[in-house]
Amino acid sequence: KNEVEQSPQNLTAQEGEFITINCSYSVGISALHWLQQHPGGGIVSLFMLSSGKKKHGRLIATINIQEKHSSLHITASHPRDSAVYICAVPYNTDKLIFGTGTRLQVFP
Amino acid sequence: ETGVTQTPRHLVMGMTNKKSLKCEQHLGHNAMYWYKQSAKKPLELMFVYSLEERVENNSVPSRFSPECPNSSHLFLHLHTLQPEDSALYLCASSQDLDSGLDTQYFGPGTRLTVL
């Protein structure tokens, strides 16, 4: 069992829909990362959060440290949001453990 | 553009070849990483360098040999690879070695195919 679990694995949506991607982890952490990987392979860091909520444009990330759970929400989804979304948690100071990712496709 | 570049972007090699992957970061960061991403599997950390010293070698076979000549450059030397080594190899950097606090900036990756 992976120490970082994401759900769903695959997600399709119509443009404009509200999207939620979930991440659960089993190790104690100081912060959690959300990353976006586009079809070309490049990865971009979206959020790093240790408590509460962060918002950037149409993206919102929340974390509940006690429940070891984080969610990534996308409001008013758009086809350009189509990507793989990955959550990652620190294991040691020098190591991140990654989830398997959620593949999102948004159709016009 | 994340400030981390990788070359080549695509590489096809035979099992007896020797090749090298190159990563360069223009961010003034002190830590650099090599990751392997295979289909349907999470990103796997291979190597970590901090201030040009290797601090993590995550049980990687010796056919992968990293080199960090300075804090801006990181190489992954490949020799006698196996077909199962075919994957996307990603380089990343961060300001310092603190995965709890530091954002990692990723390069675009090298898509490696071993025939």
State the end-to-end distance of chain A. Answer: 36 Å
**Largest sheet report of chain B:** 7 strands, mixed
| Principal-axis shape of chain A | globular
**Fraction in beta strands of chain A:** over 45%
Tell me the structural class of chain B: mainly beta
Kindly state the number of beta strands of chain A: 11
- Greatest interface and its residue counts? A-B, 29 and 29 residues
Low-confidence stretches of chain B: none
Low-confidence runs of chain A: none
What key attributes describe this structure?
heterodimer; A: 108 residues; mainly beta; 6-stranded mixed beta sheet; 5-stranded antiparallel beta sheet; 11 strands; 0% helix; B: 115 residues; 7-stranded mixed beta sheet; 4-stranded antiparallel beta sheet
Per-chain topology:
The complex is a heterodimer of chains A (108) and B (115).
Chain A: E1 4-7, E2 10-14, E3 19-25, E4 32-37, E5 43-49, E6 52-56, E7 59-64, E8 69-74, E9 83-92, E10 95-98, E11 102-107
Parallel strand pairs in A: 2-11
Antiparallel strand pairs in A: 1-3, 3-8, 4-5, 4-9, 6-7, 7-8, 9-10, 9-11
Chain B: E1 4-7, E2 10-13, E3 18-25, E4 31-37, E5 44-50, E6 53-57, E7 64-70, E8 73-79, E9 87-94, E10 105-106, E11 110-114
Parallel strand pairs in B: 2-11
Antiparallel strand pairs in B: 1-3, 3-8, 4-5, 4-9, 5-6, 7-8, 9-10, 9-11
